[in-house]
Amino acid sequence: MSFETIIGLEIHAELNTKSKLFCSCPAEFGAKPNENTCPICLGIPGTMPVLNEKAVILAVKTGLILNCEIAAESRMDRKNYFYPDIPKAYQITQYDMPICRGGYVDIETPEVSRRIRLNRIHLEEDAGKLIHLENSGVSLIDYNRAGVPLIEIVTEPDLRSAGEAVAFLKALKSMLEYGGISDCHMEQGSLRCDANISLRRTGQNILNTKVELKNLNSFKELQKALEHEEERQKVLYIHGEESRIVQETRRWDGEKGETVPMRSKEDARDYRYFPERDLGPVIINDALIREIRETLPEMPMTRKKRFRDLYGLRDKEIDIIVGDKALSEYFEALTACGTNPRAGANWILGSMMKLLKEKGLKTGQIPVPPEELHKLIKIIAEGRISITAGQEVFSEMFNTGRNAGDIVNEKGLSQISNRSELKRIITDVLNDNPQSLSDYAAGKKQAAVFLMGRIMKASKGKANPQLAREILEERLKQEISSK
Ligand SMILES: [Zn+2]
After folding, report:
1. Among 159, 184, 320, 427, which residue's Cβ finds the most Cβ atoms within 10 Å?
2. CA of 439 to the centre of ligand 1 (A)
3. 404 burial class (0-12, 13-18, 19+ CB within 10 angstroms)?
4. Ordered structural domains, the chain, with CATH
5. What mean pLDDT is predicted for residues 352-377?
């Protein structure tokens, strides 16, 4: 029996606005609990919401980036549910008249290149955050997030594997970052993903009961949760127990490594949607769409092609550098200083990524300005210090913010590239090792390797190896011909 997996995603992204969706409270992350609140976002009766124009513009911009149709008129609705994270007991969202419809994202995995269709994008407010204190029976509530503007992007059930779902989320995240739509910090919850998954026998054209997996907040979780749920459903089908697959919401338990039931899934009618009469319709005219279209920056797909053609980078390097907006901007700033693109890519993907990871920094927080890294690369290219010493200097620059020249001077890392000084060191080494010299003359070529080692040691590792080898070879030739 073979099966086909059907996956659809719902992605929530917090919009890059200064203030919340219906009030002027700051929308920033990281303030003290309940500091960013007012009567409007606390849902005090009698207050009136005012729609944030910037949020509407960002939603339209997302629609243009994702090839959607922008609704000339859309509407806000109330979604009613009673839960402490939502102080009004309803969330203001969009139901049957969303701001964007249709659209698509092209994805590439090692197996396939496919177009994933979108169903819609709608604008809504975020809920507050509940903090459940362990073993105390007490829950705390922080309303700073209540009313922060969100877009929800809903795909069609076009994805066929966990790998495709991850490829989709990566492509989407990168497009939202490039567009300046959201900061997409998954670990802070500004980009969150829910997945719907069902199975059907290969060749069938029906949609079976789907299970919703909630809050998959890293690529790894998304991959693992989908793979696990796919397997769970497959086993039930094989044993003829598919009736046990019910419409429900499950969550990923990372510790157990499995999906566990959370609650049965509500239907739309449970939410008693109705129009939000405190807000008028959202009208978007063609002139505004044109104006927003003009602000669209270069998107990752276009940049990937440009990086391949212009800098000759390899596909794998491009995926990492261009997949991350901050890294690709750093790379371009570095080459603009005159750094060779190959050297630039090697430094970014090697020492830079390693140090960022060690320090737990984001790619937008690189502490070494591109022009300073360029100076270091130049010092190495000129042969003033070795590559190994260069890596040591870079790590020091990264940790202290000091410049390459000062560190090289202070640590005495400069290579000896002075011919007469090298000649003197080499003469000493040859005088101290007459046996190696006669071995070499007798045809034992590895004696030269031993002598190079001695030269490096005698110079405390500072001899410019290329130049030293050249001089040594000259001297060895002379010695042989003089015998
Ligand atoms: Zn407020």
Report:
1. 159
2. 85
3. buried
4. 3-288 (no CATH), 300-411 (no CATH), 419-482 (1.10.10.410)
5. 94
